[in-house]
Design goal:
two-stranded antiparallel sheet, 8 helices, 66% helix, transmembrane, membrane, DUF4112, transmembrane helix
Length: 186
């Protein structure tokens, strides 16, 4: 019995002028169909019968104490990496990283974080950002910058408020328990 050789058709690829290498490789490796499917599987693959409530593998993995949200964040980073490979502007990539960071950070809070993780749907958000960025000119990114400025302000506030609260508690403890008064000069 003779073995027939396998013939593979090779199609040439014509790239638009000025396309960078990371964009060229990323377009093949991370195509729209695969990324849409990944975001769907991670965020809304399952539906509770009789409702419109959907959740994905990310929400289930997030239930594993300690490591679940980290694993979910690693899976979510695939879409962010794809955005970088496909030439998405850096401000949009930063916004995508912020979406994943919010999901992972809040997701680590017991019970509340698991519900937030299911509701936030960072992967669907990031896929929508990727699509929007690739389907429109690069000049209108004010929404992304505004989001990042707002997020930075909130993060700074969240970092400063606990310090102020601890200082206020310390002043009152010293005053009430030890009779020491602490005054700050203006």
């Amino acid at each position: 019995m003779a073995v027939k050789p396998i013939r593979v058709a090779i199609e040439p690829e014509v790239l638009p002028p000025g396309q960078r290498a990371r964009e060229r490789h990323g377009a093949r490796l991370f195509d729209d169909h695969n990324l849409d499917l990944l975001s769907h599987v991670l965020d809304d693959w399952f539906r509770i019968p009789g409702t419109s409530f959907r959740f994905g593998i990310d929400g289930i993995v997030g239930l594993i104490p300690g490591i679940g949200d980290i694993l979910g964040g690693l899976a979510s980073s695939i879409i962010v990496l794809a955005a970088w490979f496909r030439g998405v502007p850096y401000v949009t990539i930063l916004r995508m990283v912020a979406n994943v960071g919010i999901e992972v950070g809040v997701g680590m809070i017991p019970f509340v974080g698991d519900w937030f993780d299911i509701a936030w749907k960072a992967n669907r958000r990031n896929y929508a950002l990727l699509e929007r960025s690739l389907n429109r000119p690069r000049k209108n990114e004010w929404g992304d910058w505004l989001f990042l400025v707002g997020l930075t302000a909130v993060m700074l506030l969240l970092a400063v408020l606990p310090l102020l609260l601890m200082g206020w508690i310390a002043v009152h403890i010293f005053h009430d328990l030890m009779g020491i008064e602490i005054h700050f000069k203006h």
